[in-house]
Structures are given as structure tokens and as C-alpha cells.
Design brief:
This protein starts with a helix and ends in a 15-residue tail after the last helix. It is elongated and about 110 Å long. Helices cover 52% and strands 9% of the residues. A hairpin with a 6-residue loop joins strand 7 and strand 8. The strands form four sheets. It has a four-stranded antiparallel beta sheet. The protein is an alpha+beta fold. The longest helix is centred in the middle third of the chain and has 42 residues. Helix 3 runs parallel beside helix 11, helix 7 packs antiparallel against helix 11 and helix 7 runs parallel beside helix 13.
């Protein structure tokens, strides 16, 4: 009862849209179906206490058969993700219907069930046992042999149930409703990301003569990548973040943007609106993640409650039938985050992707070795002067084979276009180093002096 109230309160507290709330897992209705299942089992003499006394045929953790018990049961699902039905099967060994601790009514029910499956007349409580479940007359048609030395005989009896099928069909349908809802929300976010990416392309277009916010957006996206709002690449917390951690990281991102004054640095008014849209996309995605988590918890709780009330152990098998849905695997968050990175954040190239792996500054005048690794011209020349033959990254014999034709002019033009400040600083640093080699330590680059008119 406690979780049911918490579940309803969370749906209201988080301010989810009305159509989201209507699509949430109907936890209360599913609880009512569980009551029907338990009532049906009790009517058959298979209440939770009775089933608890029966040892499952196979221990899932130890993967071994319990051959020392006369009775076991198995609860699984026939069919596939589209069409399935639950099935309760009892296994009776050595001619004993049930454990001696079980009630006479339960024992008689199981015997009658076995008789009906064999076409034998039912018995009632107190009737003589001359026609036991495993009479010699029927052993050959219904018994299974275990294959051990004593050739223990095991009979398989399927117990017909109705309300468990209704429960799991309802739960499966509700998860499918959530999947449909999330697919629609994903499309909305996808369209918004695409529209925003087109606008950001215009706002960050490199230009020497008109205003551009390329560097401001680059810094903003650099902070966003550092925040790792929804997924982490750190070794300690690698993988998907939960909604609480994602909320914390999104708040850190917003606070860091404000602390650095990036919003005030924007030159184009449209950039302010674009930032608001970017933050709104992340907030909407975060809300979707929270909604998924709440419903995932509801599904997990209701399955645990089903097992607690029935002792059937459906938690081990049923989730596999709904594992592929977005509500269970959060594929939506992965897809939207991937699109955010590829279609939006990558619009503005990050300097980290164009650094020389030796000096860790921009690879100005990039020298592409035959092994495809790229170094700035200063580091490439230094390696050749030291007569180093092998690439520092792959150990290929390529360094001394590089020449003027090895300079990647297309990549050089790209860097000059998208990283003009960094390229200029690197060019000045390289030219200054060469000047000092030729003219001594007192050499100063022309950019350091002042021009004077005579």
C-alpha cells in the first residue's frame, strides 16, 4: 500500500503531462488482479504456503536438479514476446502426489487433476487409494524417467489457471503503451534537435567579416560534454546515469555556464534563444528518464508482489518478455543523447580532437604520416632531427619518410577556418622558435612589436 501512494504522489509531484500520467502503469488495478490469482490458487489448494513447501525442480542459481524431493513445480511462459501464456507445472516423483505436510484437499485436487489428464474418474476425500496417481496401468503413458540408477519416475502435471494469464497480458499491454508513448516523445525531441542544429550551424558559421558565436558555443558545448549529464565515461561510474544524478549534472552545467558568463558573451541575439531551447531539450529528456524510472520501479514492484503473494517466481522469467521495450531498456535516452552529440554538439568542432599527440597543442601545419597519424610540423621536424624512425603511437617506421608532401593541406585549411585563434598562436610560436634558432634568443616575433608610421 505504501508504494501505491508513493507512485501516485510521484506522478503528481513531477508535473508530468496529463497524457503521460494516463499511460502510467496501473499499479492499483494490477494489485487487484493479483488478489484474483491468489484466490484462484487458494481455491485449488495451492496457496502461497503450500507452494512454498514445494522445492522448484531446478535451482536457477545452482543449476542442479533437486532429486531428494518428491514434489517440485515450475512456472514459466510458453510462446514469444508477441503471444505467450503462463504455465504452472507440478512434478511428482515416486508415486507421491504431494509432500505429506500438504492438506488432504490439495492432495486430492492434484490426484484428480492427474486423473483427468489420463481420463480416469475423480476421487474424493476418504476414497480408497487403489487408483493412485501413478498406477502401474498408466505409468508407461504419463511417467518420465530421470535417467539415474534407480530410474525414479516423475510425472508432469499442468495446473490450469486463468487470472495469471489476465495479469501478465495486462502488464505486457501496459508496457507496450509506455513504449508507444516514449516513441512519440522521442520523435518530438528528435525533430527539435534537428531544428536547433540548423539554427546553431548558422550562429556558429566561421566568418572573418561578420559576427559569429562559434567560440561561445564551443565553450558551452565543451562544458556540456564535461558534465556528462545522462551517460558517464568515467571508470568509476561508467554507463547510464539515473535521474537523480542526471539532475545534479544538468544543474552543474547550467551553473558553470552562468559562472563563466557565456550567455553575456554572445554577440547574436538568436544565440540566447537557442541556448534556452538547448536547455529545454535536456530538461524534457530528463523528465522522460524520470518517468521511465518510476514506471520501471512500478513494474518491478508489482512482479515482486505477485511472487510474494503466490510464490510462483515469475520475476525470474517474465521480464525477459518485455526487455526489448524502450520503457525497460531506456533506448530512448541513448538515442536522443546520441543525436544531441552527433547532430548538435559536433556542429562546432572541439579543439581536443585536433591536438598534436606530442605537444598537446593544435596540430598546426599537420603532417600526416603514412600510418595516418598526424603531428604538428614542429614536433615532426623535432622527431626527424633526433633521427627517430618510429611513430610514437603505433611504432611504424614512418617518421624519416615524411616530407613536404606529407602536410595535409585540407586539414590545415579546416583548422585555420574553425580554430583561427589557436592556429595563429601556434604559428607565432613555431615562427618564434625558428627565429631564435637563426638569430639568437633575443629574437622577437613581429607580432610582438608595434608598427610605427614615419
Amino acid at each position: 500500500m505504501k508504494f501505491a501512494h508513493e507512485f501516485k504522489a510521484a506522478l503528481v509531484r513531477e508535473g508530468f503531462p496529463a497524457h503521460w500520467v494516463e499511460s502510467a502503469v496501473p499499479y492499483g488495478q494490477l494489485k487487484k488482479l493479483i488478489k484474483k490469482v491468489t484466490a484462484e490458487l487458494q481455491a485449488l489448494g495451492l496457496d502461497s504456503e503450500t507452494l512454498a513447501q514445494l522445492v522448484p525442480e531446478i535451482d536457477k542459481n545452482k543449476s542442479s536438479t533437486h532429486k531428494d524431493s518428491d514434489v517440485a513445480f515450475q512456472y514459466d511462459f510458453d510462446g514469444d514476446e508477441t503471444t505467450f501464456h503462463p504455465k504452472l507445472t507440478l512434478f511428482i516423483q515416486n508415486g507421491l502426489a504431494v509432500d505429506a505436510k500438504l492438506s488432504p484437499e490439495t492432495r486430492i485436487y492434484l490426484e484428480n487433476l492427474a486423473r483427468r489428464q489420463k481420463g480416469v474418474k475423480d476421487v474424493t476425500v476418504g476414497e480408497p487409494n487403489e487408483n493412485r496417481i501413478l498406477d502401474n496401468e498408466y505409468e508407461s503413458s504419463l511417467a518420465l524417467r530421470t535417467g539415474d540408477d534407480n530410474e525414479h519416475i516423475i510425472q508432469r502435471i499442468e495446473v490450469p489457471l486463468t487470472f495469471d494469464s489476465e495479469f501478465f497480458r495486462r502488464l505486457k499491454n501496459e508496457v507496450e503503451v509506455l513504449d508507444t508513448l516514449q516513441e512519440g516523445e522521442q520523435k518530438v525531441l528528435t525533430d527539435e534537435i534537428l531544428a536547433l542544429s540548423n539554427d546553431v550551424k548558422t550562429l556558429t558559421k566561421p566568418s572573418r567579416f561578420s559576427k559569429t558565436d562559434m567560440y561561445r558555443w564551443r565553450e558551452l558545448f565543451e562544458i556540456y560534454l564535461e558534465a556528462m549529464v545522462f551517460f558517464s565515461t568515467h571508470e568509476l561510474d561508467h554507463g547510464k546515469r539515473d535521474s537523480a544524478t542526471a539532475t545534479k549534472q544538468l544543474q552543474w552545467f547550467q551553473g558553470e555556464v552562468m559562472r563563466r558568463g557565456i550567455i553575456d558573451k554572445f554577440k547574436l541575439p538568436a544565440s540566447h534563444q537557442a541556448v534556452e531551447r538547448f536547455v529545454k531539450i535536456n530538461i524534457t529528456l530528463l523528465r522522460n528518464v524520470k518517468f521511465q524510472e518510476i514506471n520501471q520501479t512500478a513494474v518491478t514492484k508489482i512482479l515482486k508482489k505477485f511472487d510474494k503473494r503466490t510464490k510462483l517466481g515469475a520475476t525470474r522469467t517474465f521480464p525477459k518478455l518485455i526487455h526489448s521495450g524502450s520503457a525497460m531498456s531506456q533506448t530512448m535516452a541513448k538515442a536522443v543523447c546520441a543525436q544531441l552529440t552527433q547532430d548538435l554538439v559536433k556542429i562546432v568542432p572541439q579543439i581536443d580532437d585536433y591536438l598534436c599527440p606530442i605537444c598537446f597543442s593544435i596540430a598546426w601545419r599537420p603532417v600526416r604520416m603514412t600510418c595516418e597519424h598526424v603531428f604538428c610540423i614542429s614536433c615532426a621536424v623535432t622527431l626527424q632531427r633526433k633521427k627517430q624512425k618510429f611513430c610514437p603511437l603505433c611504432r611504424g617506421d614512418v617518421i624519416l619518410k615524411a616530407n613536404a608532401d606529407s602536410i595535409d593541406s585540407d586539414l590545415e585549411n579546416f583548422m585555420e577556418k574553425y580554430f583561427p585563434k589557436e592556429a595563429r598562436e601556434k604559428r607565432i610560436a613555431v615562427e618564434t622558435e625558428r627565429g631564435k634558432e637563426q638569430f639568437g634568443e633575443s629574437y622577437k616575433h613581429p607580432s610582438e612589436g608595434k608598427c610605427s608610421m614615419m
